[in-house]
């Protein structure tokens, strides 16, 4: 007879495979639909004129700012790993290569490269790689959302009358988010306990669902516990401000070269939207959603015509892919030139 546990594991595996297939089909569909619409909005005969607006000095400045972004990301990884012996000669190339794969590979598969490379080149455990990557992503997303929210009252005229109330609400939300992130492990465990009756009900219709959900939540809570150290947490948060600044400068240089001239809060709103779109999970390498975010931001906050805003979105996203590929190739070479750390005991 078949073991019930094996049947449950098989059912859970099949359900996971179906979910992954549905997510990938949805991602492909969203990407194709968005790109088909956006490509039709651009006057491609004039696209070379858009490129001609950007001087060589602006391209170089944007490339240097993008390099600074990756260096600060490597520093944040080093902080979150909490290992002072992490050699820069290996960690920086890993960050450069990982950043390229995240942008190049579909379905966020590039994220796995960071964990794999940490394990193969630095002998770090999968848990260490996963927790540092998760912490970095959450911190980055938190800063982007909060900075964007702070820029809205100053850039949207209809909200100007409620500016003080909105800024107070944003400040309180930011403080609560920071506290929630710091005590993330405890928050997740409390959520898990409160959601247990719902999970038990779901278990009746989907064998193994509650067990799988509880295991994922437990692992996530353990990962969040790793950053519950005041020095580590505050240093990583402070470093994330520099990753945001570097990313902002990369796009600010190019937008100014394109002739965009708006107040600083509007620039912050436009660029933060572009950054946030890069984290959207249901696309192939961000295509479609990133360009759509740039288009919306440039039309809403800079008054740019539809065709020009869409073309600028393609240009900005294309530059990010080019810069990521350039530095990613350099990172790939450096990874293979540098000798990995010897395994423990060797």
Description of the structure:
The chain has 346 residues and is an all-alpha fold. The chain is 80% helix and 0% strand. It is built from 13 helices and no strands. Helix 3 crosses helix 4 (88-104) and helix 3 (56-81) runs antiparallel to helix 10. The longest helix has 38 residues, at 4-41. It starts with a helix and ends in a 9-residue tail after the last helix. The mean pLDDT is 83.
Please give a quick description of this structure.
The protein is an all-alpha fold and 346 residues long. The chain has helices spanning 4-41, 47-52, 56-81, 88-104, 111-122, 126-155, 163-182, 184-205, 209-225, 230-257, 264-278, 289-302, 306-337. It starts with a helix and ends in a 9-residue tail after the last helix.
Largest sheet: none
Bin the helical content. over 70%
Topology as H/E string?
HHHHHHHHHHHHH
Number of strands: 0
Which regions are unreliable across 5 or more consecutive residues at pLDDT < 50? Answer: none
Question: So what's the oligomer here?
Answer: single chain
Strand content: under 5%
Shape: globular
Could you tell me the radius of gyration in angstroms? Answer: 22 Å
| Helical run tally | 13
- Spatial gap, N to C terminus: 47 Å
Write down the overall mean pLDDT: 83
Give me the secondary-structure category: mainly alpha
């Amino acid at each position: 007879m078949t073991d019930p546990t094996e049947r449950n594991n098989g059912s859970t595996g099949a359900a996971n495979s179906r979910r992954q297939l549905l997510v990938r089909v949805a991602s492909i569909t969203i990407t194709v639909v968005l790109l088909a619409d956006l490509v039709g909005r651009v006057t491609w005969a004039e696209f070379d004129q858009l490129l001609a607006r950007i001087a060589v000095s602006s391209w170089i400045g944007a490339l240097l700012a993008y390099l600074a972004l990756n260096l600060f990301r490597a520093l944040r990884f080093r902080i979150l790993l909490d290992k002072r012996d992490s050699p820069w000669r290996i960690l920086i190339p890993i960050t450069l290569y990982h950043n390229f794969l995240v942008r190049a590979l579909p379905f966020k598969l590039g994220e796995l490269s960071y964990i794999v490379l940490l394990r193969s080149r630095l002998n770090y455990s999968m848990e260490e790689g996963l927790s540092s990557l998760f912490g970095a992503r959450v911190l980055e997303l938190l800063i982007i959302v909060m900075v964007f929210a702070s820029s809205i009252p100053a850039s949207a005229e209809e909200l100007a009358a409620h500016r003080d109330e909105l800024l107070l609400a944003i400040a309180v939300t930011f403080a609560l988010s920071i506290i929630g992130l710091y005590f993330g492990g405890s928050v997740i465990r409390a959520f898990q306990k409160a959601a247990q009756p719902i999970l038990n009900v779901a278990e009746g219709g989907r064998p193994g669902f509650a067990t799988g959900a509880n295991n994922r939540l437990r692992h996530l809570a353990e990962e969040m516990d790793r950053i519950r150290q005041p020095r580590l947490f505050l240093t990583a948060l402070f470093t994330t401000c520099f990753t945001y600044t570097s990313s902002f400068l990369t796009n600010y240089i190019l937008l100014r070269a394109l002739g965009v001239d708006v107040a600083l809060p509007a620039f912050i709103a436009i660029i933060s939207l572009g950054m946030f779109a890069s984290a959207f999970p249901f696309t192939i390498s961000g295509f479609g959603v990133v360009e759509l975010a740039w288009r919306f931001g440039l039309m809403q906050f800079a008054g740019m015509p539809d065709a020009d805003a869409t073309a600028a979105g393609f240009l900005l996203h294309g530059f990010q892919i080019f810069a990521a590929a350039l530095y990613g190739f350099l990172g790939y070479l450096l990874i293979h030139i540098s000798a990995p750390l010897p395994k423990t005991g060797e």
